[in-house]
């Protein structure tokens, strides 16, 4: 999964809002375990990201989906 796609899906700040890039970098850092400085160096659209990051973000996306399903089920179980 490309970094921008991951951000569109999981960052709560709208892409049009101030602070979106910072929030996106923070989310990518949390998902990959890499530093925000490293991620910031990938370019404006994260085009310089290493290939292995695609797999990491795909896995983080799946985990986030499972977490979301579990949280939704907890709301209905009350």
What does this structure look like?
Helix content is 67%, strand content 0%. With 78 residues, the protein is an all-alpha fold. Helix 1 (3-10) packs across helix 2. The radius of gyration is 14 Å and the shape is globular. The mean pLDDT is 94.
Percent range for β-strand residues: under 5%
Order of helices and strands: HHHH
Helix content: 55-70%
DSSP summary: helix tally = 4
User: What's the gyration radius in Å?
Assistant: 14 Å
Distance between the termini: 35 Å
List keywords for this structure.
4 helices; mainly alpha; 78 residues; single chain
List the helices and strands and how they pair.
Layout lengths: L2 H8 L9 H13 L3 H5 L11 H26 L1
Produce a short descriptive summary.
The chain has helices at 3-10, 20-32, 36-40, 52-77. The protein is mainly α and 78 residues long.
């Amino acid at each position: 999964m490309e970094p921008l796609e991951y951000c569109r899906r999981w960052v709560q700040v709208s892409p049009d809002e101030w602070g979106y890039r910072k929030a996106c970098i923070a989310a990518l850092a949390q998902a990959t375990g890499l530093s925000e400085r490293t991620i910031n160096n990938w370019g404006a659209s994260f085009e310089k990201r290493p290939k292995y990051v695609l797999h990491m973000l795909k896995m983080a996306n799946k985990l986030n989906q499972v977490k979301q399903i579990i949280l939704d089920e907890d709301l209905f179980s009350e």
